[in-house]
Specification:
- The protein is 41% helix and 15% strand.
- The protein has 282 residues and is an alpha/beta fold.
- Helix 1 packs across helix 2, helix 2 packs parallel to helix 3 and helix 3 packs parallel to helix 4.
- The structure holds pteroic acid.
- The site of pteroic acid (PT1) has 20 residues, from strand 7, strand 9 and helix 8.
Amino acid sequence: MRRELDCAGHVLDLTRPCVMGVLNVTPDSFSDGGEFIAADSAIEHALAMEAAGAAIIDVGGESTRPGSEGVTVEEELRRVLPILEALSQTVSVPLSIDTSKPEVMQAAADSGAGLINDVMALRRPGALEAAASTGLPVCLMHMQGSPKTMQNAPQYGDVVTEVRDFLAERLQVAENAGISRQRLILDPGFGFGKTDPHNAALLRGLGEIAALGAPVLAGLSRKSLVGRVLGREMSQRLPGSLAAATLAVWNGAKIIRAHDVAETVDAVRLCDYVMTTAAGVD
Ligand code: PT1
């Protein structure tokens, strides 16, 4: 199936699986320790990710890792707008804005963002209307609870069914608000109100979410699932993250959100090769 997303003039080809590089512009960011908060180092980092093969750069000004607090609209705008302005002049891949705030969606679109990545799946008041009015593609992600408390005993009947039904409903709600189906991406939200067994079930069951018909995005890079299962600190999670990325692509993911872009691009390409290369009859 041929699939192209128009990200504000940049074409994102999802015929093949690709990598979304993470650009955190949060001083409290979970794996970069605020290293990339300064505009010039953010730009350097984005250019390095583009050179390493990132198909999208995801710019986020509010940490959503477990336990984190939200930031104000003003603070989030102060963090992301200068970066988006600068990056839209320097990188040639589409930029995505990782936000749940309608004000940030609108301003980011005006500053060059080509895709909206919302971990709240447009559930904030005004977010549906704001996202629709930008005309941009949107990633709708599942989360149980909020970042501050989501890892306090998350519960599901059947996690795959519940996440799939939630995403199907948000897909319909977004479509009704004027965001056409061809502009929507779905994400089960690994680590967002899920235990390790919940995450494992979702990774195995990703095909059921892909069956909803929209491209699937998966973010597992450096997450505590990898840390807990393997007993690895943040700096030692690359091999586990690559295994998780491979499993996600194998089960139908089309966009892998990752910190280590060059390595993840290799894993994704190898997996895609195995999935799509037919052997002839010798
Ligand atoms: C994600 C994602 C995201 N993850 C999308 N956007 C984060 N679409 C931010 C942990 O368990 O998966 N998909 N934006 C980062 N959030 C987390 C969540 C970071 C959990 C770490 C963990 O360690």
